[in-house]
């Protein structure tokens, strides 16, 4: 639900602003940050669902399941890293570095896996990688406190439901 | 802990397999991806509308902020282009004016049957020297000699002071040391016009009893052997008459036909015609504007006479 809202925000607002180099991916920043703060299996599930939402987004033209595959795997890996860095997990600096690296690997993985499954999204997509990574370095420290607050609130709601 | 990890890995494998299944189905065309995207569009549509309505007012601002650099460079390029166009336009205007000036001076020379050498003013005497002189781009190589008359489209402008091979210096008519013998249009009354240092000239009539009126036009009388002045060259028009009772001479203010501050192309008269053109070179006289006469008829209002009823009261 939240990923869907973030994706809508990305498509309606962020993608319509002509940023230099490339448009920042608030959606990927959000998904990877969330995965870093989450347990592995839940991170994988949330990554899969977020990817699936991206796959079936009206503006998406790729193969359904591609983003789900990529984000499930990356989210799991990022979460694994988050568990190992449990002590500094909620530091904005750690989050920024991990999210930026996560976005970089996500895009590379997407291009590589896309070439394997004969997807058309390849070279052109690759050109946006430096720009997206740059903007994630700029935006992650700005929005990570908000993500941490929302994550805490979501955890609180989850516990109260249990 | 180890169990959790194994479970997570198993779960991840299941998700990855599901993804691969979806990919395979979509690649084979067995997945209704279009239908899924339509449903997604329907679900996200209200949120898109909401975000859009919030975002629209600020979109122009953000667009402007992010395209500021491009806009600046565009403005800079347009400014350069504009400056280049202005320069070109100014050059064209200058050429057009020169052509116009040249045409009028050729017309005047043609009417007087003068042989002329067209010249461009290349320098104007410095204000610091208190002399109204100009430098022309023609000299002795072009047949220019000292004391020749210089005309522009409207009439007399200056006379040659000194000549070098490819340039010459001329004294403008409005210089205080400039004097030219003149004749009033039609009447033939003689006088002398001299420069005042200002935009107007001063006319002094030799005969104080002669009639002098505003609007009368003045032409050069001509010097002996036509040097420096040729007869019939238009000089100016009287704009003010100075009446001094008992004075031996009569004077007037003359406005030259040529605006001496705005000339760029002139012509040096190198030889004259055999006949004196008299007043033929003067521009056509301005037609007097008829003054409208307003006639007002006044009918007196009749005085009311007392009626019978008023008397009764």
What features would you highlight for this structure?
heterodimer, A: 162 residues, mainly alpha, 7 helices, 75% helix, globular, B: 313 residues, alpha+beta, Thrombin, subunit H, 2 domains, six-stranded antiparallel barrel, six-stranded antiparallel β-barrel, 12 strands, 24% strand, elongated
Can you summarize this structure?
The complex is a heterodimer of chains A (162) and B (313). By secondary structure, chain A is an all-alpha fold.
Describe the structure.
The complex is a heterodimer of chains A (about 160) and B (about 325). Chain A has one domain (about 25-150). Chain A starts with a helix and ends with a helix. By secondary structure, chain A is mainly alpha-helical. Chain A has helices at about 1-10, 25-35, 40-55, 65-85, 90-115, 125, 130-160. In chain A, helix 2 packs across helix 7, helix 4 packs antiparallel against helix 5 (about 90-115) and helix 5 (about 90-115) crosses helix 7 (about 130-160). The mean pLDDT of chain A is about 80. With about 325 residues, chain B is of the alpha+beta class. Chain B is built from four helices and twelve strands, in the order H-H-H-E-E-E-E-E-E-E-E-E-E-E-E-H. Chain B has helices at about 1-30, 35-65, 70-110, 310; strands spanning about 115-125, 135, 150, 155-165, 170, 180-185, 190-195, 200-205, 215-220, 235-240, 250-255, 265-270. Chain B has a six-stranded antiparallel beta barrel with strand order 1-2-5-4-3-12. In chain B, strands 6-7-8-11-10-9 form a six-stranded antiparallel β-barrel. In chain B, helix 2 (about 35-65) crosses helix 3 (about 70-110). The interface of A and B includes residues 60 and 64 of A.
